[in-house]
Amino acid sequence: MNKMKLGIIFGGQSGEHEVSLMSSTSIINVIDREIYDLTLIGITKTGKWLLYNGEIDKIKTGEWEDEGINIFLSLDPDYKGLFTINNCHREFYQLDIVFPVLHGPKGEDGTIQGLFEVLQIPYVSSDVMSSALGMDKAFSKKLFEYAGLPILRYQVYSKNQFAAEKENTVKNIEEELGYPCFVKPCNLGSSVGISKAHNRSELYEAIKTAFLYDNRIIIEEFVNAREIELSILGNETPEVSVPGEIVYAKEFYDYEAKYFDNKGTKLIIPAPIPEPVVERIQEVAIKAYKTLNCSIFARADFFYDEVNDKIYINELNTIPGFTHGSMYPKLWEAAGISYTKLVNRLLELAIERHSNK
Ligand SMILES: Nc1ncnc2c1ncn2[C@@H]1O[C@H](COP(=O)(O)OP(=O)(O)O)[C@@H](O)[C@H]1O
Ligand SMILES: [Mg+2]
Questions:
Q1: What is the mean pLDDT of the chain?
Q2: What DSSP line would sit under 78-95, residue for residue?
Q3: In what side-by-side order are the strands of the sheet with 49-52?
Q4: pLDDT of amino acid 236
Q5: What is the mean pLDDT of residues 232-247?
Q6: Contact 121, 146 (CB under 8 A)
Q7: 194 touches ligand 1 (CB under 6 Å)
Q8: Does the beta carbon of 315 lie inside 6 Å of ligand 1?
Q9: CA distance 37 to 53
Q10: Residue 249 has pLDDT above 90, yes or no
Q11: What angle is formed at CA 131 by the lines to CA 127 and CA 137, rounded to 5 degrees?
């Protein structure tokens, strides 16, 4: 049997470059080499694409970049893949499928998905539109609202809009959302550029910070709630996992709590919440996935306000963290699907979606 040629793409230009190196190392180590021939493609923080043939351990440390070889994408549909050029000699690497293990902008936001659509190569992630919607906190909220899903109250402003009417805008935020409130760039992740504002001066500061990262920002009412996450898997008939809970030591689940606070941040699986609440969250998770027309996989993040018995969907992450210790695979492990099986399933789902087009 001919092996499938699988390209794993790691790194990327977003703030989650390092997370991607960790997720992809875990994935590379479980790929069944009897079925797949692997081509490793790294993207540096400056956006350079490099072919990597070295040791897997050097991906996490960043040393892979020193051994990377410049690559060129083939735009010929009869030769899907990439090639290297050495002394006028071209070496071709066929790609039957790619797994962009990239988080955040230019990886999870539909841009790289568009590239693979153009190249006609199946890829492991939601399609262009769903990825872009999943990444954009304002548009995903608007659609969730339209679908009648429970969300927190929010307002969206562009840089120009805010600059033109600062005082009225701030007054409006105070009246409609109150303090504390959360201020976020619309298109980012990893809690970068996000602040909790407790008063007017903090609000001005928070808005300034968020605008450093994006031309559009979203401001949300604060909810004192537990943070619950679920894993979703599938194309036309997606399945949902049990919920997991994130418990952290900081004031909110910020960048440090997410990636550096080994002691303070814990994942509790399954989340100790009442069964009827679990069912409600699962139902909303699937509806949210369908609302954004997601495919293959996504992690749905919720707030659970125990005191008022309310749930709110916060976001869908279309390429969730994927190390062995990450919430997404751990939730499936709880359902008896091992990490290795899960990776295989994702690849199958990508092929299935591509062949149904
Ligand atoms: N409206 C809110 N109320 C309470 N906490 C919030 C709110 N919005 C965000 N947070 C906190 O900030 C964290 C990051 O916000 P989130 O919207 O998930 O952005 P990101 O895409 O960067 O993960 C959340 O996990 C949560 O701890
Ligand atoms: Mg989040």
A1: 95
A2: TS-EEEEEETTEEEEEE-
A3: 69-70, 49-52, 36-43, 4-11, 97-100
A4: 95
A5: 97
A6: no
A7: yes
A8: yes
A9: 12
A10: no
A11: 160
Could you tell me the two tokens for 122? 């199946």
- Report residue 86: phi and psi, to 5°: -130, 115
Place of tokens 């991906």: 59
Beta-ladder partners of 245: 228, 268
Tell me the torsion sign for CA atoms 247, 249, 251, 256: negative
Helix (H, G, I), strand (E, B) or coil at 225: coil
Contact 316, 140 (CB under 8 A): yes
Domains assigned to the chain: 4-123 (3.40.50.20), 133-151+224-355 (3.30.470.20), 154-221 (3.30.1490.20)
The pLDDT, as a whole number, for residue 312 is 98
Q: What predicted TM-score, i.e. pTM, was given to this entire model?
A: 0.95
Q: Is the pLDDT score of 263 beyond 80? A: no
CA distance 303 to 227: 5
Please give the pLDDT value at position 140: 97
- Closest ligand 1 atom to residue 317 Cα is 21
Ligand 1 atom closest to the CA of 181, numbered from 1:
1
Residue 253 near ligand 1, beta carbon < 6 Å: yes
- Does residue 182 line the site of ligand 1, with CB under 6 A? yes
How far apart (Å, rounded) are the C-alpha atoms in residues 41 and 115? 15
If pLDDT is split at 50, 70 and 90, which confidence band does 250 have?
confident
Structure tokens at 352: 């299935």
Query: Hey, which of 151, 228, 252, 328 would you mutate to test ligand 1's pocket, going by the most ligand atoms within 8 Å of its Cβ?
Result: 252
In 39-106, where does DSSP find H-type helix? Answer: 57-60, 64-67
- Band of residue 39 on the pLDDT scale cut at 50, 70, 90: very high
